[in-house]
C-alpha cells in the first residue's frame, strides 16, 4: 500500500495487475512452504484450509500485463485476474491431488496465529521490496 500511495501521489502513470497466487509455485506443492515438491504423506493445512485463493498461470499473467501496456482503459487502474475455475481453497486443492494420485494425505492443521508468527522471522514481513 505504501508503494501504491507513493506512485499515485507522484501522479506516475501506472497499471496494477492483481493475480493472487502463481500456480507453478503453489499448486505442485499443495501450498507447502519451503518446498516445490508435493508432500508424500503429510500436508500442512493453514488455518481451516477453506480460504479461497486464485491460482494463475504465470504465462497468462504475463499476457494480460503486456496487453495492458498500450490499452488506455488500463491506465491508472487495477486489473484483477479472477477466472472462476481457478478459485480454490487449500482443502479443495489437496482433495484434487488425492483424487489424481490415489493417495490420502495426513492433514496437519497450522492455526492462523502460529502461521503468522512463523512469518515474522522471514524477510518478507514488514519490509518493502522495490
From TrEMBL:
GO terms for molecular function: pinoresinol reductase activity. Belongs to the NmrA-type oxidoreductase family. Isoflavone reductase subfamily. This is NmrA-like domain-containing protein. One of its GO terms (biological process) is secondary metabolite biosynthetic process. Transmembrane segments: none annotated. Gene3D superfamilies: NAD(P)-binding Rossmann-like Domain (3.40.50.720), UDP-galactose 4-epimerase, domain 1 (3.90.25.10). Residues 2-118 form the NmrA-like domain. SUPFAM superfamilies: NAD(P)-binding Rossmann-fold domains.
Amino acid at each position: 500500500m505504501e508503494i501504491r500511495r507513493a506512485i499515485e501521489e507522484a501522479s506516475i502513470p501506472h497499471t496494477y495487475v492483481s493475480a493472487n497466487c502463481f500456480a507453478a509455485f503453489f499448486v505442485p506443492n499443495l501450498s507447502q512452504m519451503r518446498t516445490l515438491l508435493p508432500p508424500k504423506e503429510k500436508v500442512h493445512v493453514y488455518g481451516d484450509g477453506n480460504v479461497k485463493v486464485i491460482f494463475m498461470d504465470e504465462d497468462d499473467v504475463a499476457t494480460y500485463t503486456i496487453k495492458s501496456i498500450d490499452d488506455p482503459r488500463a491506465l491508472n487502474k487495477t486489473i484483477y485476474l479472477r477466472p472462476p475455475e481457478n478459485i480454490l481453497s487449500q482443502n479443495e486443492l489437496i482433495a484434487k491431488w488425492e483424487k489424481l494420485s490415489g493417495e490420502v494425505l495426513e492433514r496437519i492443521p497450522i492455526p492462523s496465529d502460529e502461521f503468522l508468527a512463523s512469518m515474522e522471522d522471514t524477510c518478507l514481513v514488514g519490509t518493502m521490496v522495490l
